[in-house]
Amino acid sequence: FSYDYLKCVTKDFANVLGQGGYGAVYLGVLPDDTRVAVKLLNEGFPQEFDSGSNEDKSFLAEVATLANIRHSNVVHLLGFCLEAPKHLLVYEYLENKSLDKVLFEPTTPLTKWKTRMQILIGAARGIEYFHSYSGDRRVVHRDIKPANVLLTADFHAKVADFGLAKIMDTATHTTNFTMPGTVGYRAPECTIIGDAITVQADVFSFGVVCIEVVSGRRLVYVEQQGRTRVLLFRRALELMLQEEYMKLVDERLAEDGIDEDEVRKVVRVAGWCLQEDPKQRPTMDAVVALL
């Protein structure tokens, strides 16, 4: 796509759908009335490349990787624009936006447990696809969080935002760039810039998402009876050790629809994912099988 064309279909980038670490996402409407999500990447993306020409080559390589991804739980890339210094990605538009909005915004609470379970399983399958990407290279997402789990009209989950994703060589399963991810969802081993990043970092992040889906609370929240800020997954681990799984459940969930066995299963899977030692965490295919 040309930049002028995307500027036109987004009405001069008027309707912001969201803001991520690498740029904003805007609503666009094509001439056939198809809605699209246009991600305008920050100028200078990606920051780790030295020159304009190398940057453009790297951008095109990333687009080529995205274009090869076809999975029902991964947001579909429709096209791109590369008119220096502008870099844009055009994705399919998903009606229910992101998981963080339906979980954390009081006007749109997701009150059915079955729907939350469906979303978790879909997201897990999308991440599993990244980790078992066919070919001689793998993809690590590096920023799994509710804002990067988008939802269709019927709450089918699709993992989005490859802004931090890098191709991994299967010989080493590692890559080194800037510090990945979002604070709170970032695995302990990812806190030092330049350290090797493995697929197990995504597994840790997914564990945090599991706890947020069960509880309907953000990672850090304030207790009703005081000012104490509670780190959610640590609280979850405490309750798991006490086998008090239902104390984590979102009070807004319809009581008659809660499956206690499934809640117990999700919290236990989350605890496994949140192991400090990445070698002790499950693979995503194991997570999918358990869920």
Automatic annotation (TrEMBL):
InterPro entries: Kinase-like_dom_sf, Prot_kinase_dom, Protein_kinase_ATP_BS, Ser/Thr_kinase_AS. Residues 11-291 form the Protein kinase domain. Its main location: membrane. GO terms for molecular function: ATP binding; protein serine/threonine kinase activity. It is found in: Cell membrane. ATP binds at residue 39. It is a single-pass type I membrane protein. The keyword Cell membrane applies. Keywords: ATP-binding, Cell membrane, Glycoprotein, Kinase, Membrane, Nucleotide-binding, Receptor, Serine/threonine-protein kinase, Signal, Transferase, Transmembrane, Transmembrane helix. Gene3D superfamilies: Phosphorylase Kinase, domain 1, Transferase(Phosphotransferase) domain 1. One of its GO terms (cellular component) is plasma membrane. GO terms for biological process: defense response to oomycetes. Pfam families: Pkinase (PF00069). The keyword Transferase applies. Belongs to the protein kinase superfamily. This is Protein kinase domain-containing protein. It comes from Selaginella moellendorffii (Spikemoss). The lineage of its organism: Eukaryota, Viridiplantae, Streptophyta, Embryophyta, Tracheophyta.
